[in-house]
């Protein structure tokens, strides 16, 4: 049996996990930096990199000790080296390279977006391929045809904001704090999703593309009026809750509608969903209803595997089996795929 040590530092979570080549997770440690970024209303890349530097070694130590192993038991080091904030990725990539060299074990580079889909395979405990994959996070909104864990064909992506980014920006407009997704979901719970008729961009279009910036602007105008660039956030009350609920309904309807189109266009009967926005309960419920009506199987990981973590780097096992090791000069690649 081979033990893998995996590292994730692509954005504002410092994470390490230990798993085996049989995909058994022995530990999954995540140190969130939310408190450091909250006062700025978003992730500050330089602060994220410095926090990764401080947190990474303690997080790795914790992952090893929870797994009940030491560094000498590690047979392969895995790291998310793309996509993400370049300075943040570099911290994890440098540590992973150093560890692989020091331990004399192979190094595997993993794509973080593909990892979000592989988290579905991990949680299901069985094969999920071929499937349609939807990744909805703070940085990405993308649909894939996934023929196997490592063959992802992009079907469509967003032209502007990612879905999670839209949640974060609208939460900021409504004064709900950071991170915006969970705060907006809580606010929406008491609102009327039909109170505002916000745009569902591209919903009636066959292309599998997304755009959320018009929706964000529509919320801004509904909140403050068209001629006020940005006023004080609305006070707590029905208007704020209705804006949140109507926004959430629009995003969810578009995401679900595009998944329906992707399932029909590809003829595939499995849908795998990952990324932070897939923690949203309305989205989970609507996707479950969609899959039921389309006769498709839905795979969504539990919350702990939806948001960023290092256990989703179990995708490294697939590469390791094929002997696809990273070169010693593996680089951090900020761009998507
Ligand atoms: O996958 P993730 O942890 O990090 C990235 O790779 O970006 O996703 C973070 C994103 C944030 O934009 C956050 O607001 C959103 O996921 N998010 C949610 C919820 N929980 C997290 N969006 C909507 N509803 C939620 N419950
Ligand atoms: Zn992510």
Explain what the structure shows:
The structure is a single chain. By secondary structure, this protein is an alpha/beta fold. The protein has 11 helices and 10 strands. The strands form 2 sheets. The chain has a 5-stranded mixed β-sheet with strand order 3-2-1-4-5, sandwiched between helices. The chain has a 5-stranded mixed β-sheet with strand order 8-7-6-9-10, with helices on both faces. Strand 7 (141-148) and strand 8 (151-157) form a beta hairpin. Zinc ion is lined by residues 112, 116, 137, 275, 308.
Q: How would the blueprint of this fold be written?
A:
Layout: E1 3-8, E2 13-20, E3 25-32, H1 34-38, H2 45-67, E4 74-82, H3 86-103, E5 107-111, H4 112-124, E6 131-136, E7 141-148, E8 151-157, H5 163-173, H6 180-188, H7 213-224, H8 238-266, E9 270-274, H9 281-294, E10 297-299, H10 303-306, H11 315-321
Parallel strand pairs: 1-4, 4-5, 6-9, 9-10
Antiparallel strand pairs: 1-2, 2-3, 6-7, 7-8
Helix pairs in contact: 2-3, 5-6, 5-7, 5-8, 6-8, 7-8, 8-9
Bound molecules: 5'-O-[(R)-(carboxyoxy)(hydroxy)phosphoryl]adenosine and zinc ion.
5'-O-[(R)-(carboxyoxy)(hydroxy)phosphoryl]adenosine is lined by residues 11, 137-139, 164-165, 167-168, 179-182, 185, 275-277, 279-280, 307-308.
């Amino acid at each position: 049996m081979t033990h893998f040590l995996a590292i994730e530092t692509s954005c504002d979570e410092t994470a390490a996990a230990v798993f085996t080549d049989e995909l058994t997770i022995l530990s999954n440690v995540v140190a969130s930096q939310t408190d450091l970024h909250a006062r700025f209303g978003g992730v500050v890349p330089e602060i994220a990199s410095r926090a990764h530097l401080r947190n990474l070694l303690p997080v790795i130590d914790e992952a090893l000790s929870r797994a009940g192993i030491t560094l000498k038991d590690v047979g392969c080091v895995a790291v998310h080296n793309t996509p993400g904030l370049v300075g943040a990725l570099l911290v994890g990539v440098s540590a992973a390279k150093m560890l692989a060299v020091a331990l004399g074990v192979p190094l595997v580079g993993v794509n973080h977006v593909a990892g979000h889909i592989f988290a579905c395979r991990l949680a299901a405990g069985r094969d999920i391929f071929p499937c349609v994959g939807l990744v909805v996070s703070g940085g990405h909104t993308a649909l894939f045809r996934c023929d196997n864990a490592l063959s992802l064909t992009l079907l469509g992506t967003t032209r502007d904001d990612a879905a999670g980014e839209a949640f974060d920006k609208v939460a900021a407009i409504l004064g709900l704090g950071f991170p915006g997704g969970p705060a907006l979901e809580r606010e929406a719970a008491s609102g009327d999703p039909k109170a505002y008729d916000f745009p569902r961009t591209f919903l009636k279009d066959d292309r599998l593309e997304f755009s959320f910036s018009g929706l964000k602007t529509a919320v801004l105008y509904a909140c403050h009026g068209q001629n006020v660039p940005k006023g004080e956030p609305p006070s707590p009350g029905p208007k704020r809750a209705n804006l949140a609920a109507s926004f959430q309904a629009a995003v969810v309807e578009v995401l679900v509608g595009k998944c329906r189109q992707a399932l029909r266009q590809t003829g595939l009967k499995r849908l795998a969903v990952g990324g932070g926005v897939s923690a949203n309960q309305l989205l989970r419920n609507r996707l479950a209803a969609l899959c039921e009506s389309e006769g498709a199987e839905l795979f969504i990981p539990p919350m702990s595997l939806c948001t960023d973590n290092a256990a989703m780097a179990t995708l490294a096992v697939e590469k390791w089996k094929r002997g696809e090791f990273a070169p010693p000069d593996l680089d951090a690649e900020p761009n998507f795929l």
